[in-house]
Hints:
This protein has 767 residues and is of the alpha+beta class. The protein is built from 20 helices and 17 strands. The strands form six sheets. Strands 4, 5, 6, 7, 8 and 9 form a six-stranded antiparallel β-sheet that branches. Strands 3-2-10 form a three-stranded antiparallel β-sheet. The model is unreliable at 204-224 (pLDDT under 50).
Amino acid sequence: xxxxxxxxxxxxxxxxxxxxxxxxxxxxxxxxxxxxxxxxxxxxxxxxxxxxxxxxxxxxxxxxxxxxxxxxxxxxxxxxxxxxxxxxxxxxxxxxxxxxxxxxxxxxxxxxxxxxxxxxxxxxxxxxxxxxxxxxxxxxxxxxxxxxxxxxxxxxxxxxxxxxxxxxxxxxxxxxxxxxxxxxxxxxxxxxxxxxxxxxxxxxxxxxxxxxxxxxxxxxxxxxxxxxxxxxxxxxxxxxxxxxxxxxxxxxxxxxxxxxxxxxxxxxxxxxxxxxxxxxxxxxxxxxxxxxxxxxxxxxxxxxxxxxxxxxxxxxxxxxxxxxxxxxxxxxxxxxxxxxxxxxxxxxxxxxxxxxxxxxxxxxxxxxxxxxxxxxxxxxxxxxxxxxxxxxxxxxxxxxxxxxxxxxxxxxxxxxxxxxxxxxxxxxxxxxxxxxxxxxxxxxxxxxxxxxxxxxxxxxxxxxxxxxxxxxxxxxxxxxxxxxxxxxxxxxxxxxxxxxxxxxxxxxxxxxxxxxxxxxxxxxxxxxxxxxxxxxxxxxxxxxxxxxxxxxxxxxxxxxxxxxxxxxxxxxxxxxxxxxxxxxxxxxxxxxxxxxxxxxxxxxxxxxxxxxxxxxxxxxxxxxxxxxxxxxxxxxxxxxxxxxxxxxxxxxxxxxxxxxxxxxxxxxxxxxxxxxxxxxxxxxxxxxxxxxxxxxxxxxxxxxxxxxxxxxxxxxxxxxxxxxxxxxxxxxxxxxxxxxxxxxxxxxxxxxxxxxxxxxxxxxxxx
Length: 767
């Protein structure tokens, strides 16, 4: 019986043969040559043999390697950084966690090394690749998201792709040639299939030349030789197998189903109780109205307006109407309550699942609406030779290829241009010019001689012709040998070398000043900064237009994979790049419980969060540290940042301890400051008290002096008063004495006058 043909393996092989065209082979050959030139493999075997036969030097002056190293430095000076923006307010907190999870995955996968290798591939081979995948064996079987770096020449892309990130490609294929023993290590669960796989012919691709004797001067980067395939189990030579890993986008029909969710039994019981209460209130209202209407009919009957039969008939109709209204209200209340309690939800399922579900009449009765659309899923097919190992669909959250390209110069096709390709011609020109100049100088220092055959002893001349002061014999009668001088080289060769150096710098955009050449640097500090700014614009353009979109796509893939893998409670410990910050702990999908111990939700629900991933522009570019530190110093002087921010950007060792000491010093300084404030307060109080004491002493002395003055004043006043009294007394006494004297005199005068008068009177009498 014939063996059943593996259709998947045949389809993958057919696609590989279609994509491995002459264009692809030529592109790989050109970029392999650029990679060889950057690694100082600049002469083919035929060129080396031809130069040796002509006696010319075979060395090369590698001007490409510094260019490659500088481009690698500018693109990988720092690790890329991502940030996430939540689509809703509730997702903002979870989105902030993404940057820490991305750092965890990056450092866990040694992303810095992989990114550097991918950038080097982009510069030398025109394209590099990073790949996001899951290692299911990590974290004790819980799985971890990891980043890998495929070999660019192992990746085959749909030639009709016109998107820079290959998002419109119908497939992306990885093809390798691996030993059988290595495949057993990679896929131990498929050992039987690996043993059944048949090795293929013509699986070695060699793009470098070999000499006839088998001497290999060039490096063979493509595939290992079949003699190097060693089985690690037996130690013998093993067979090589072609390994294909194909990713393709498949459109899958989905149904967005809107369906009703009926209430549970508890909700129904609660609704029935509410309906019973409403019906009871309605029955009471209708019963009162019925009695009122019956009373009205009774009055009409008593007045003779209606007969007894009409009264009975109308009463019966009213009773039936009340019963019907109660039944109708009951049904209306139930329908209304159920419609209010029934929720409309939507869920996205595949069309195949929907066709199975609608066979259930109950589910079909709950469907409100459905919308059909097509979603993209990534299908992975892993083939080994003529056997398919497995075929699977990646998780639904993953909508893009997990292989991210990093171009140097995108051409609108899957065949970009490297930075080395335009430099190969100039490198060959410089090598040839140097070889000619050195060869000419060598010919001038060791002369060649032209002689008649038999005129000299050739062995003797070959041995001593270049010796200083040598005597070179010539046979008698023979013409002496004539020295053959080399033709002088044109000065154009020296100009070619200098112009070649300048042309290579101009083509690559990497100038001598950027590599520390002091002869081409500006004299002033600001001039050097200006040269650094203007000289790196081409590099910044490459990073902005080619590398950063790829890094953004890498962040999107990391977020999609991480939200798929990290669905359980997990704690991440991320080592911060700045030693001051230390280690950071991040926790996601933390279960929340109610009072009964039942899980009711998750805090930091990372799986269901929705956010947009962005790359922080320029995060991988280097910084001019001196200019940056000078700027930080100015900002610190302005009070915008503190000294800790400046310290974190320096290269000082033990920054964490310095920060702790500064913190301790700050605390002690704060304590000293508070104590100084207290001391100032106390000193101020003491000074105030001293001033008060001095003022009090002065006041006391002033008071004492005032008292003394007052006392003296009073004494003076008293003395003055006494003197005044004495003076007044003396004056009075004097006046009195004067008065007495005048009175005495007056009395004596009066007496004399009286005596005279008496004498006159007596005389008159006598007369």
